[in-house]
Amino acid sequence: MIEAVGLTKRYGDKTAVYNLSFQVRPGAVTGFLGPNGSGKSTTMRMILGLDNPTAGSVTIGGHPYRRLPNAPRQVGALLDAKAVHGGRSARNHLLSLAQLSGIPARRVDEVLGVVGLQNVAKKRSKGFSLGMGQRLGIAAALLGDPQVLLFDEPVNGLDPEGILWVRNLMKALAAEGRTVFVSSHLMSEMALTADHLIVIGRGQLLADMSVTDFISANSADFARVRTPDTEPQLREKLTSALTEAGGHVLPEQDGALRVTGLPLPRISDLAHGADVRLWELSPHQASLEEAYMRMTQGAVDYRSTIDQKAGLQQPLPPGAQPPMPVPGQGQPGWYAPPPPQQGAQPVPGGPAAPSGPAAPAGPYGAAQPGPYGAPGTPGAPAANPYAPQQVQTPGTAPQAAPAPQGQAPGAAPAAPPVPQQAPAAAPAPADLTKPEDAR
Ligand SMILES: Nc1ncnc2c1ncn2[C@@H]1O[C@H](COP(=O)(O)OP(=O)(O)OP(=O)(O)O)[C@@H](O)[C@H]1O
């Protein structure tokens, strides 16, 4: 388990991460979301001991990364797929990582097979596509068969097949009881991959809850209503009736109306009372993307000057009313109806992330073979569920996690000032933005 308590990082005047407390539990894929510059990479670097917290602490299995016994075999990470010596072949890159951690060379060939790079293993990585580079980074993370895995934007540059493969890989790793912490900007992908979400904005915790709870806490149910396309006056008539009855009516792209604040039977009765025929009346819930946009739109640092709501808002048609602002939720958008009496913040305390089975001893712990064994091998484990190409040999090697750079080992972070359990939802973020980026 990864546990952050009061984690704070300042770069000069810039507060990149502020008072973050959360837990990432084993047996689940935990998605790490936040707008650009919200502090995701900084948090991951602190977890991996690559940056010292200004305050607070973060531990893996109860230890700071740098005090973990045999850390490279316990924790694997993909932070920057481009951090590879381009003149080296994929195999040599992995071999050098393996040697640093005492991992046998045969393990390199196994992970090359797992990520599907075995046929280009001897090619120099500088000729690799973005997707191939991502696969090489994932291979490095898997090298030590670690129980804890961190991936920063692992699907960046992957084609649809690659994205599906990464999704299945993450899920399979979590199903084995591993701790899988993955950042992404692809909400639709996170909705399919993650069980649990940690969302930050401007370095502060916005939400810590299951995907399902996140969507329901940050989006209201709404109804889609469609009147006959051939009779636009019916649409206007219905809009007036619904608005008079207290509903919020907003246009959808296809000419339908999105209605919040009125239950479906009431909408039906009002349409009947106004003598308006309906072609559609259906219940809906916002997607993860909509819920995420709603939550983070007040914490977005970078927004185009020519697109006030990041391209998601459409002009309102004549007669339509803009939605009421929601306190603490930034700018309202037509795509994000106000939540029902939830207040400004998401509902705290989604169910805890599912606890997976106790982590099996990896192939390097002698007790059990790992997931990379070839099928049919006597005594070998079941076929690797996520290998594009089945590997041939039961593994025997630990992992290469990123080596701390330029940091004195053992430099422990300051004691956490607020040793509380991770809150499910943090208070509204303070404005920590500074005009200067110290970088
Ligand atoms: N070494 C550094 N020196 C100064 N500022 C930094 C440094 N590293 C990060 N920052 C700043 O801290 C903030 C958080 O950056 P970080 O890279 O952690 O965000 P992020 O959520 O990973 O962003 P993205 O989604 O764009 O990758 C940003 O404003 C960034 O400019």
From TrEMBL:
Domain ABC transporter, first and last residues per copy: 2-227
Amino acid composition bias (Pro residues), ranges on this chain: 315-326
Region described as Disordered: spans on this chain: 311-439
InterPro entries per UniProt: AAA+_ATPase (IPR003593), ABC_transporter-like_ATP-bd (IPR003439), P-loop_NTPase (IPR027417)
Pfam families linked to this entry: ABC_tran
Domain of life: Bacteria
UniProt keyword list: ATP-binding, Nucleotide-binding, Transport
Coiled coil (UniProt feature): none
SMART domains in the record: AAA
UniProt GO molecular function: ATP binding; ATP hydrolysis activity
Keyword Iron-sulfur attached: no
Stretches with biased composition (Low complexity): 342-413, 421-430
The family this protein is said to belong to: Belongs to the ABC transporter superfamily.
UniProt protein name: ATP-binding cassette domain-containing protein
Organism: Streptomyces broussonetiae
